[in-house]
Amino acid sequence: MLCQLAHHFPPFVESFLERSRPLRRRFREESVTDLLMGSLITAGGRRIIVEFPDEPVTGADMEWNFVNPDDGTFFRMLLQAKQCYGGGSVWTRHGYKELLHQSGSGRKLQASVLCDTARAATATYPLYIFYNPASTCEAARGAGFTAVTGANLADGYLIEGLVRGATTRALRTGNKSLKAIAPLLFPLTDLFCPQAVLATGPQAFAPGAPAFPLAVGIAGGRSVLGVPVPPTPAAIRQRLVAARDALAKTGIKETAAAPGVPAIAERIPDDVSAAIERAQARARSQPGLRRWRVTFVSANPVDRYSGPGLIRRRPQ
């Protein structure tokens, strides 16, 4: 499910954007985000709820909500998408020309709008998702930055630091370059792999009817066969913490000054619960529309076996 998508979507984006380069009208990041949403709809069955609600401006193109109805926990990520532009084999000439975008009547930096929204919210973290054509990826990987793929994530607070620090003409050019961004990138697989599963049984398919074949995944800390489900809010938070720690170990000093990853919430917000209820009732979301909203519905993994073929859940 999500783990497979995390592996397959980035190389698709590389090819998709590269094919648009000769066109008179090149695809923009909105096109790739639409494709990502379509992929999530296809991959997620009834455990991934995709909407496009009318919401106040937050600086985000996407809102990813991770919920676990079993224990009522919640974690949100706000994502802003940017596409890389540039040509030739010199990778330092590639960059994200819209990274310093300003929005609103006050012309506030988009990165600051995104991060201020996250700072003011509960259990919310800002991320950037960067889309890169094949020529950009090949140039970067040739220079040793093997983590650069068609779709990468980066810590929103670290990107905000680069954007706010672009106070001179040279820095405005340098801080939005791939050279400045590449050391901060991490893959989608860091969030979505290994995949979690629910072992077979009626609870594995709720809410809704069966949507997936059985798959090998992780439940209760072990490899088991079951139905794939999105990661729990606690798992997503821990994977963000691990990504931050990995960056710190590479010498990115800014990670120490950036806000920490907040704790998960012990209550699912009313608007997210309403989205789940609408999906279960097969209702359509309202038109309107400023950003995609995605709700990932997880469940508690299996903890241990009580006998051959019998599964007992962890006590609550």
Characterize the overall form: globular
Radius of gyration: 20 Å
Main sheet properties: 7 strands, mixed
What number of structural domains do the residues give?
Answer: 1
Which structural category fits the helices and strands? alpha+beta
Uncertain parts: 202-211, 283-289, 304-316
Give the spatial strand order of the biggest sheet.
Answer: 1-12-2-3-6-7-8
Pfam families: DUF6615 (PF20320)
InterPro entries: DUF6615 (IPR046723)
Q: What does it look like?
A:
- With 316 residues, the chain is α+β, with helices and mostly antiparallel strands.
- It is 35% helix and 22% strand.
- It is built from 11 helices and 14 strands.
- A hairpin with a 2-residue loop joins strand 10 and strand 11.
- Helix 1 runs antiparallel to helix 2 and helix 3 crosses helix 5.
- The radius of gyration is 20 Å and the shape is globular.
List keywords for this structure.
single chain; 316 residues; alpha+beta; seven-stranded mixed sheet; three-stranded antiparallel sheet; disordered C terminus
Topology diagram in text:
Layout: H1 2-20, H2 29-44, E1 48-51, E2 62-68, E3 73-83, E4 102-103, E5 108-109, H3 110-120, E6 124-131, H4 134-142, E7 151-155, H5 156-164, H6 169-174, H7 178-181, E8 186-187, H8 189-192, E9 196-199, E10 215-219, E11 222-229, H9 233-249, H10 254-257, H11 270-280, E12 292-297, E13 304-307, E14 310-312
Parallel strand pairs: 2-12, 3-6
Antiparallel strand pairs: 1-12, 2-3, 4-5, 6-7, 7-8, 9-11, 10-11, 13-14
Helix pairs in contact: 1-2, 3-5
